Automatic annotation (TrEMBL):
This is Type II secretion system F family protein. Gene3D superfamilies: Type II secretion system (T2SS), domain F. The lineage of its organism: Bacteria, Pseudomonadati, Pseudomonadota, Betaproteobacteria, Burkholderiales. Belongs to the GSP F family. InterPro entries: GspF/PilC, T2SS_GspF_dom, T2SS_GspF_sf.
Length: 407
């Protein structure tokens, strides 16, 4: 096989004259191999991978289910190739050839084969919702009606990069506090597991009265020092739980009710989701999708509670209510958004107004992240300092008492 993306299948088929035939066909999967045989007028009875290739094919299928495509880059490059004058099939073939990941290249090659069969790009992408987001599929479906696919892809890429930039800014702002918290945790663990047990020998040898708080501290230190394996296992378990929680939250698009209840952080997540909702809705409306349909499609970007509010707002809009008041009554539009949506109702520039609302909320979010970071870092440093200071004071307190009794 010249193409590493292809697999070989042994096919048993019956010819129109009733003659049984066996043949070997190279294709991306069994479905395509069957189609190729049927094009030659054969009735396929069985289609099996080559003997000895089951484990390899199973690994390929498992890898294919985990394809991770940079959707923003794909949309940008595809739009650029379309602007350069390439047809949609030639453009996707070009992207498949330049793709380094063999599994992603296979997905794009599968798109090309389906397009050559006469299917639309949106319907083909709809076969792989695990690779192509619903919003991208909807954007392309709308552009297929208007004939402006290149512009629609550019809008999607720009929207995706804007949201990714805000997300990256929030993550960057959280890196330093997390590092500070991690270093503080290690320092406290070192003091309890190493320094406190050594001091306890000196304190207990004095045979003086040890304050109750110092006794508790010494007991904790001795326990950690006596069971280092258990402590190491607890730390590893904590790290694994933390990583799992972050991955779980990311897979759920951070739509977890517990995050909404966190002080400071919950408000920032709420603001980001609203900005994401407005910007993406504006992009879809600009691409030719009706406003109500765009709102429904973008509902998944909101928290579960806001999704229910959006459903009520959509019902009101379908019944003839204005968009601004309907969203405000649902708690999805503040006073600024209401005024801007009222202007959009008069001018008809809803997509542009939604983008401006998103820009306004994103700038507010950026300032809120900066202020929150400036407040949170000193509070966190003060908290860690108080814990370390308390440990040091409780260690030295018996020594101070001993010195006072000697005087």
């Amino acid at each position: 096989m010249g193409d590493p993306r292809m697999l070989e299948f042994d096919i048993v088929a019956k010819a129109p004259a009733g003659i049984m035939r066996t043949l070997r066909i190279a294709a991306l999967d069994a479905e395509l191999a069957t189609r190729l045989a049927e094009r030659d007028g054969l009735r396929v009875l069985s289609c099996k991978p080559r003997p000895g290739g089951f484990s390899r094919i199973g690994r390929r299928k498992n890898a294919l289910s985990r394809v991770r495509l940079d959707v923003a880059l794909f949309a940008h490059e595809l739009g650029s190739l379309l602007d350069a004058g390439l047809g949609i099939i030639d453009a996707i073939e070009t992207l498949a050839e330049k793709e380094r990941s063999s599994e992603t290249s296979r997905v794009l090659a599968r798109l090309v084969l389906s397009l050559k069969e006469g299917r639309s790009l949106s319907s083909v992408m709809g076969d792989r919702p695990d690779v192509f987001p619903q919003l991208l599929i909807a954007t392309i479906a709308a552009s297929e009606q208007t004939g402006d696919m290149a512009a629609a892809l550019r809008r999607y890429s720009a929207n995706f990069e804007t949201l990714r930039g805000i997300r990256s800014k929030a993550i960057s702002a959280a890196v330093y506090p997390l590092m500070l918290l991690g270093v503080g945790f290690l320092v406290v663990l070192f003091l309890l597991g190493v320094v406190v047990p050594k001091f306890s020998v000196l304190i207990e040898s004095s045979r003086g009265d040890i304050p109750f708080a110092s006794q508790i501290l010494i007991g904790i230190g001795k326990t950690i020092h006596a069971h280092p394996q258990m402590m190491a296992a607890a730390v590893v378990t904590l790290l694994i739980t933390l990583v799992w929680s972050i991955r779980h939250a990311a897979n759920a698009n951070w739509n977890l009710p517990v995050l909404e209840r966190l002080p400071l952080i919950g408000a920032l997540i709420h603001m980001f989701r609203h900005a994401q909702f407005y910007r993406t809705s504006g992009m879809l409306i600009e691409g030719g999708i009706a406003a109500v349909r765009a709102f429904e499609m973008c509902g998944s970007l909101l928290s579960p509670g806001d999704q229910q509010k959006l459903l009520r707002a959509v019902v009101s809009i379908r019944e003839g209510a204005a968009i601004g008041p309907a969203l405000q009554r649902a708690g999805l539009a503040d006073s600024v958004a209401l005024r801007m949506l009222t202007v959009a109702q008069r001018t008809g520039q809803l997509a542009e107004i939604l983008a401006r609302i998103a820009t306004f909320q994103e700038s507010t979010l950026a300032r809120a992240i900066e202020v929150t970071t400036r407040l949170f870092e000193p509070v966190l440093m003060l908290f860690i300092g108080l814990i370390i200071g308390a440990i040091v004071v409780l260690m030295y307190l018996p020594i101070f008492d001993l010195a006072s009794s000697l005087q």
